[in-house]
Write the structure tokens for this entry.
Amino acid sequence: MSITYLDAIREAQAHALRDDPRVFIYGQDVAAFGGAFKATKNLAVEFPGRVIDAPISEDAIIGMAVGAAIEGLRPIIEMQFADFSTVGFNQIVNQAATLFWRTNVPCPITVRLPFGGTSGGGPFHSQSIEAIYAHYPGLVVLTPATVEDAYSMLIEAVAIDDPVIFCEHKFLYRHLKAEKLPSEALPIGKARIAREGRDLTIVAYSAMVHDALEAATELATEGWQVEVVDLRSIKPLDTDTIIASVARTGRLLCVGEAFPWGGVTAEVIARVSSEGFGLLDVPPQRLNAKDTPIPYHPNLWLAHRPTPQTVAAAARNLLRQ
Amino acid sequence: MSQTVLESGDTADTVVSSGKYLTAYRYMLRARLLDDKFAALYRAGKIHGGVFLGRGQEALSVAIGLALKKTDVFAPLIRDAAGRLAFGETVADAARTYLGSSLGPMRGRDGNVHRGRPRDGLLPMISHLGAMISVVNGILFARRLKGISGTVGAVALGEGATSTGAFHEALNQAAVEKLPLVLVVANNQFAYSTPNDRQFACADLADKAAGYGVESHSVDGTDLTACLQTLEAAVARARAGHGPQLVVAQLLRLCGHGEHDDAGYITPQLKNSALGRDCLKLAEDFLVGKKWADTAQLAVWRSETIREIDDAVAPVQREPAPDPFTEEWQALSTKHLNEIRPDDFEI
Ligand SMILES: Cc1ncc(C[n+]2csc(CCOP(=O)(O)OP(=O)(O)O)c2C)c(N)n1
């Protein structure tokens, strides 16, 4: 048997629906159609009345979820693409994220964002917007990079009493496979050492973990031992694990698929610089997408985002210093 | 599609009992005097931030609060002191929020009209206009999923909020789900300083209902009897399963947008028109005309209510303010997921 990242997301939702009568799924085309990516395939049949099609109204979809959460339910919201969550942005950052702090009433909603680049997606079906959500207090932002994490972190997300932005990478959906679903997992908030090394730390998350691992394999043939840290959760951000890794390697490269201004890579570098400056042998570096909208054509698209080759090149620069 | 149109003076006395009218009037009076109290505290520099009054909108607002049951849901807006009181909010909750008391429902974390108790069905508005409608939809939807029937959710709005995308999305959503939602639009002719002709281009906001496939009701917002009757009818229609109800009331805001605003943009002609009549004064004239109260009784009620409000607000002024040193600076309810950064300790 082989299970894809997408299967894991579907299975995690089935698990949540089965386990907890308070869970329901709401989103565009999620019911009979099974979702634009088929992440909710057959769930409407298995769980009648609990997988519900929504109109194209991202603001009202999130608002509805917050109301249901106030009423004690645990909605899972599927945004058709992360890019469209900007239409529901107000309800996410101003309604959901402030509810507990203002009123002491928790807001257990999970917002699934199919995000990230796939060739041909173009400017409005490719974005990585995790950082703008992480910027707001009151949200948990998750970026699973493996089939196992997609499954266990989604189950945990639904169980958390706070709003969770669950960023699932569209490229990983069918690309990643595992033999079986995990029975145990690291808790949310803990980063994972995806590969051990002593010469350089590459911090990455979601699909970029795989690009970083590929780069590390290539660099190993040149004699470098590169450590790869998979953040798993970008908020909370496991600063301790990052700093412990930098303490071992003395060099830091942080890789993200998102736009370059600010964001997760900048936050990681800021933290390491202020809390672990003395551990660094050379100035830390970051590698992101370019500061333009995301292009459609594969030639442009591949040049716009980090790739294993550009990650390896950036790593070599650091290693040679 | 039902279309209720009640003009002032319609079969008023036959539809609303003296008891109900008097109850409504007493809440209106309390709301007006509570607003006056907050305005006075504002002028005395005792309130941080703005003060927003519902002067002239009490008849409509109280009618919402009274038409609802305690198990219903109410998302009031800026000008709903009367509806809040009628729905069950205490003067203390209002005062504690305006004065930032740590004992209030918002504990100094939010202020003025941004107050409520979600677990009691009274939702604390966020500022973003139109955003509360879909939240009420969610509560109604959840109750349906849980098999609880008979709940109605009412949302108060100004006409300005009908221009938001959130309004459109949420009213359409409620219509698609056929939710028992009552959306009450107080068309007070201005959104801050913006007049209706810069806000919308349809002849009557109630006309919008047809486009969403929902029922509508128009009412003279200065007439308490008409408001009570219309809201009762709309809430009953929603409760009986006829889907969302859009209520549009015509009235005038008899104050500035907030107490910082002298509303110089409202012309004397408008103030002197039928729209500019004071619903509280009209209700008092009606009570006297019906001999349900005389002017001496009205004066007694007024002084009693002033005393009652003073007695409720005075102790709040002595209550502890929130303390930044003991404040839990954590936005997540899941304690261990809150990030604690080194600079959090460096006060
Ligand atoms: C989405 C949004 N935009 C702007 C504002 C600023 N604002 C607060 S109240 C207000 C006017 C509201 O007018 P209306 O909805 O007619 O209600 P009224 O004040 O007349 O009761 C504006 C523009 C806001 N709160 N929300």
